[in-house]
Amino acid sequence: MDTQSLHLEERFKRIYLENKDRLYHFVKRYTKDPLIVEDLVQECFIKVWDNLPSLKDDAMIYPLLRTYVYRIVVNHNQKEARRLLRDAAFNEKQPLSVSFEEDLLFKDGWRSFHEVINTLPEKRRKIFLLKQQHGYTHQEIADQLKVSVKAIEKHLSLANQVLREKFVADKLVVVLILLSMQAEFM
Asked: Where would I find the RNA polymerase sigma factor 70 region 4 type domain in this sequence (predicted)?
């Protein structure tokens, strides 16, 4: 093994050991299944390994790792939500219906979602619905409401924060509702 490869391997081990636990706990906020958390963290470190030669400042690597792993979590959750929607669409075509409890759970989640959205300040609610229901870009919303893109981003961030706080136990319900809202209006 050449010196450069050895150096990269040692560097990677150090980055891994210094950050794996923090990343694990970060991902655990979004996914409760420990096996999935481990897979997503591992996927993040694979990305780090692939990009290691171009990464410069190891002392400031954690924010980059969080960005990597957050994108990986979002992609995972989107794939899982699409899979669940496909399964739901398939099951909808089957003669057996969804159980009464599952139907109530979804309807209750939908109702709770609307109640939370309706508690948002009017402008924030309007921005959130333009983004989620109509699929407008940040720029399109900013142009329509005559505010800055930064203001739009801030409102969306605050709206999403409220949703995360209200739906901590069942984030998948929120993802499914948001995806179904987008599908309805496309």
From this structure: 112-159
C-alpha Rg value of the chain to the nearest Å: 20
pLDDT greater than 90 at residue 161: no
At residue 103, the pLDDT reads 56
**pTM of this prediction exceeds 0.70:** no
Tokens of 57: 């400042």
Domain ranges of the chain: 3-77, 98-184
Question: 3-class DSSP state for residue 13?
Answer: helix
Could you tell me which residues come within 8 angstroms of residue 126 by beta carbon, excluding any fewer than 6 positions away?
A: 145
Per-residue pLDDT, averaged over 87-116, amounts to 62
Structure tokens, 19: 């950050």
Cα 56 to Cα 98: distance, rounded to the nearest angstrom: 52
Q: Residue 81 and residue 176: Cα distance in Å, rounded?
A: 6
- Is the CB of residue 78 less than 8 Å from the CB of residue 139? no
Tokens of 118: 């309706």
Average pLDDT over residues 22-49: 91
Looking at CATH, the fold of the domain delimited by 3-77 is given as Rna Polymerase Sigma Factor; Chain: A (1.10.1740)
- Find tokens 């996914």 and name the residue: 31
